[in-house]
Amino acid sequence: MLFNLNRKLMEYLPHEEEFARKRANLSDEDYYAVIDKINEYCDTHETVKCVYFAPGDWTPTVFQALYEACGRNVDDAAMFLGQILWVVLQERDDDWSFYREESIGDNIQGMKYFRINR
């Protein structure tokens, strides 16, 4: 389950229409391979960020399919990965929260997620 810092349950998906458009370009096999990889990581770590999965080169990883589904646009693929991570954390049995990290120059850090105890 995913909560904001005030412990409010996040029951929505940011930019849902854009997510649906990108998801339509991705096979179920590729989508669930990404989900499995994210869950595998989350099972053994207390914090997670999108950059942990696609720090630069999307190839040859399961995340390459996201890059292809987004017309080989790195920024779109990164946003899509962030949305998938959000969905995965919403659907997990354990509890997670998040905050937006500060940008450092042109390096946008994005969301950092961390396991919580309720």
Detailed description of the structure:
This protein is α+β, with helices and mostly antiparallel strands and 118 residues long. It has one domain. Helix content is 40%, strand content 12%. It contains four helices and three strands; from the N terminus they run H-H-E-H-H-E-E. It has a three-stranded antiparallel sheet with strand order 1-3-2, with helices on one face. Helix 2 packs across helix 4. The longest helix is centred in the last third of the chain and has 18 residues, at 74-91.
The portion of residues forming beta strands comes to 5-15%
- What is the string of helix and strand elements? HHEHHEE
Helical amount? 25-40%
User: What is the CA-atom radius of gyration, in angstroms?
Assistant: 14 Å
Major sheet size, sense and barrel closure: 3 strands, antiparallel
Strand order of the largest sheet: 1-3-2
Please give the number of β-strands: 3
